[in-house]
Amino acid sequence: MNRFGLVLALVVSTSALAQQSDYAIKRAFEEGAKGLKGAISEAASLAVLDSLRDEITRLENEFVVHRDFLDRALYPMTFSETLAELRALHLNHYDRTYLTQSRGTRITELEAQVSLLTLRLDSLAAERDSLFRQLRTARKSTSSLRQTSRRLSATLRARDRLIFTLVDSLFLPYGKNIEEASYLEKESLSRRIEQADLLGHIFEIATDNVRFLELTELEPRDYAGVIGLYQQFSSRWEGLRDGILEVSSSASAVAGEKRADEAGHPPATAIDSVMALWESKLHALFWNRLRGEFTDRSLQLAPFGNGAEFSKSIEGYVGELREQDKDPAVFVNDVWKLRIDREWRSALSNDIILGRAEYGRLDSLVSELAQKKFDREFILFSLVLLAIVIAVWWFFVRTPKRPAAAQQKSE
Amino acid sequence: MKPQAVFIPVLATLCACSSLTIKNVDYGWPVESVLPVGSDDRVEDRRYSITFDARELAVAEFQDSLALKGSTLRLLRSAEGFYFITGRNFKHVYVFEQGSHELSLMRQIQVSQTPLKAPALNQRPPHVELIDGAGLRLLLTSGGIFEEEKK
Description:
Chain A has 411 residues and is mainly alpha-helical.
């Protein structure tokens, strides 16, 4: 408040000089504006800022009679520009102080959490690097490869969870509807996003998952988890993407700061590209591996590379077995029941692969094929059994009975 | 074609160029510059890009070439383009005309019998106003003190 007092003193003291020295008028206005700038920057409460707003108006009223002179004498700014700059600074600081006062405690807590999460992400990144190295060197032993793969998968999952906890921590203080946040809130959030290198971490995690798919050979049952992970990550990113872009563009536009990609962080489009790569690789591996289940048993199904093609292929093969009255035992029992239904059902039931309803429909279709064969066997078995019963009955029926008179005689 | 036929139009053009004059130029600064005299006795105004040595001015006013070192000078250019210079403890206002790499003294106006205490120059077209606290107020021109002439 000393500086503030000085400003007042300068303004008051120059009133007397104002009609004498132009230079003194100019200096008084400059010093007044400078003092107010300092006072605004140092103000820590809204009450002080409220009084400073009045002081800006007082400064304007005090010197407005010299407006024409000051417009010429001040350099490089004019009287109006100097006051506009003061008011903009005041507004900026007012919003910042308001934000700090209203949400300060929560933000401080969450900032600590963000720091901790970032640290844990970094430590997990080190573990991930080590596991990727091990995965490359552990190719000799299948069991050690499998073990390393599991540990790596767990590490990647932990990082996925952490990154979205980090996202929640960053966005939570600003509420869910980020579009309605003030530009200062957006600027503040944008700064936190940059500090936490959120986009960098998301990009890294998506890239790690692509590398993981390239380096590991997944078991059929693993696909359900991997697909679920992709799906969860993808939907979270979709939800986050617009929010981050909204915050980044607003903050950059207002503050004139660098865009995310210019500041060295990956742009959202780069993350989109990695997500697309992750999805295509996952689908390619999945359908390729599933095709193997049929080809390994020499079943000639029409080739498939997505859910629709898979359905069509199964329908076609079932139809072919029916039409040609072939034995479906291998297809139904060995492949569908033992492999597909046991190992792949969970992954196939995922909506981005086939969906639960479609899998159920295909399973019924295949089961009907088994049922038909079962019915035929049952009829045959029943006929044989009936024949045996008739034969036994006939055997007993044709056995000659002793005459009743002879029986009575013997008694 | 006769040589005169070519020579006369060329001469006429040259004469016309040399007599080109832009009238009503306002050189006036809106406010005086208060400039410190550096340890090398030089004065520099960054806004109007003018630099000069204050030693000769010090000799003229105080008969001591080092008298202005560390002090401040008040400099104002009038609407006509003359530089008015004075300072604390001065008894005169110096009016200079700009030349090629030089400021030529047009007039040394005695404004007080006693040294000025807090002088200031204001632009009051077509004059330059000199004030010294509440006690002195004079309107100056490149020719001298306007009010005195009026009287």
